[in-house]
Design a protein that fits this description.
Pfam families: TRAM_LAG1_CLN8. This protein is an all-alpha fold and 265 residues long. It contains 9 helices and no strands. The chain has one domain. The N terminus and C terminus are likely disordered.
Length: 265
């Protein structure tokens, strides 16, 4: 049970506050993304519409995390600043807005997948459900809240990925975004994501010890579940990285000119 007691703040932090309108913001986000989807021209296919929505979400998420890094003091070794909600009266208070916005987007995108078979993808459905479980549980209980927000920066690779598909008929632009996608995927989801995960895993034993001191079994169970789910997202990213490398390797082999062999006598 989420409370404002000081003994819980040392590992859960103070954000979001108990009166923060989480459900209302998620609902508004769902409605907003749904309106954008249906207000886009009917000449655009549902698949491309979903990519446009995804690009908007990615841009907003990356911008929010970038602003946080520019305006906030960073200390990921403090337990409640990586596995909690951070301190009251700081920029950590604004993280919940981004999480609610993202939750609304993922729910909306799941509904779109259910309505349109052309948009449906087993990998995307799995990814969305896992991200929703992690993010929503965190914003309601503060458990892992900051780390969920920081992971939104990984969405930077989603931008060139979507633009690559949107401009698939323009080969030069498509190839440019394909290269940018490969680069940003490695930098954001493998390098940056791994660094954040290292801070997360480093803080877990201390978080569990603090929670155990106050018999907070709910937080302990939640953090263990979230760690397992985060680990699954790391495996999913590795799987995607292998696919990207294989595709790029196959493409480079096709583009490689054949070696001419001169007949010698």
């Amino acid at each position: 049970m989420l409370t404002e007691k000081d003994d819980h703040i040392e590992y859960l932090g103070s954000n979001p506050s108990l009166d923060f309108p989480i459900s209302s913001l998620i609902f508004i986000s769902i409605i907003g993304h749904s309106l954008i989807f249906y207000l886009l021209p009917s000449s655009i296919t549902p698949l491309i519409k979903s990519y446009i929505l995804s690009t908007i979400h990615a841009c907003v998420s990356v911008l929010a995390v970038s602003i946080f890094y520019l305006r906030s003091s960073i200390n990921f070794t403090q337990v409640n600043r990586i596995l909690g909600g951070g301190d009251k009266g700081t920029h950590y208070e604004n993280m919940a807005y981004s999480i609610c916005y993202s939750a609304g987007y993922f729910i909306c995108d799941l509904l779109i997948m259910l309505c349109f078979k052309s948009v449906r993808s087993q990998a995307a459905i799995f990814h969305h459900i896992v991200v929703l479980i992690i993010g929503v549980s965190g914003v309601y209980t503060r458990v892992g809240h900051t780390s969920h927000f920081l992971m939104l920066a990984e969405e930077v690779s989603t931008i060139p990925l979507n633009l690559k598909v949107i401009y698939h008929h323009r080969h030069s632009i498509h190839d440019l975004f394909a290269s940018l996608f490969a680069i940003t995927f490695i930098l954001s989801r493998l390098v940056y994501g791994t660094i954040i995960c290292a801070y997360i895993f480093r803080a877990v034993p201390q978080f569990i010890q603090m929670a155990a001191n106050y018999d907070d079994t709910t937080s302990i169970v939640l953090i263990i579940i979230q760690i397992i789910l985060i680990f699954l997202t790391r495996l999913l990213n590795l799987y995607w990285a292998v696919l990207i490398i294989r595709k790029m390797t196959a493409k480079s082999r096709k583009q490689k000119p054949p070696v001419s062999v001169k007949k010698t006598e």
